[in-house]
User: What shape does this take?
Amino acid sequence: MKNRLRVLRAERQWSQQDLADRLDVSRQSVNAIETGKYDPSLPLAFRIADVFALTIEDIFLRDPEEQAAQ
Amino acid sequence: MMNVADAETRQTARPGLWAGLFAVNMALIAVLSITDALEQPVPVILIALNCVLLIPMVKAALRRMEDKGAVTTAVRRYNRRFLGASLLYAVSMIGAGTATNYIAANSPLMWALAVLPMLPAFGMIWAMMRYLAEETDEYQRHRAVQASMVGLALVLVLGTGWGFLETFGLVPHIWAWWVFPAWAMGLGIGMAISEWRHGGSA
Assistant: This one.
């Protein structure tokens, strides 16, 4: 799943480790989510949204194909 | 982005090297015992000694995980518990393997010795169950479950396959206690696959 984590992090000048600390997960997990290798669970997605003070949909983007299918 | 220090630590932390050495030794021991060049309990003792190699392997793997920022509190706890249980397992294997020569067959003590390795084996399973319960990082938990499934696949598929080969008299007998080391090797392979697929982080 595509997401805007890298951009949002850059805006706040946070490293992956900074975000990991805020989320209480490992840096590798932040990297996996950011690069789209792993889709977070709904609770973790909400935590990510809370950290950035945004909604989940502001951060995670629907796949274009999935959207086209709707 | 990887700086020079990272590159250096990554070069020194090579769990694969230790794992390879361990696997080669295991293969040698297997060949020697299948061809009857070694008689019991010598192979058992050699296998137990070979397990000492797992200590630097685990240390190297841990250092590598640290480099990648993949070590959580639960992982630290799990490593301590699992290493403790595997040391106990090795000790009970060497102990039981050596002592069997001096004990009357079918004596109650023989039974006790034979059952002894079940305790550390249970300890290792307990460590894994605690890890899954304590790990708050869902991605790491997901990877651990996937890796253990590879171990399970290896044990069940190879075990079933070997069992039938043995039934048809095509291969020699293998002791059932091999399930645990085989599962652990599968776990290691699973972790390596996961590292390769998800790796290259940071």
Summary: The two ends of chain A are 17 Å apart (CA to CA). Chain A has six helices and two strands.
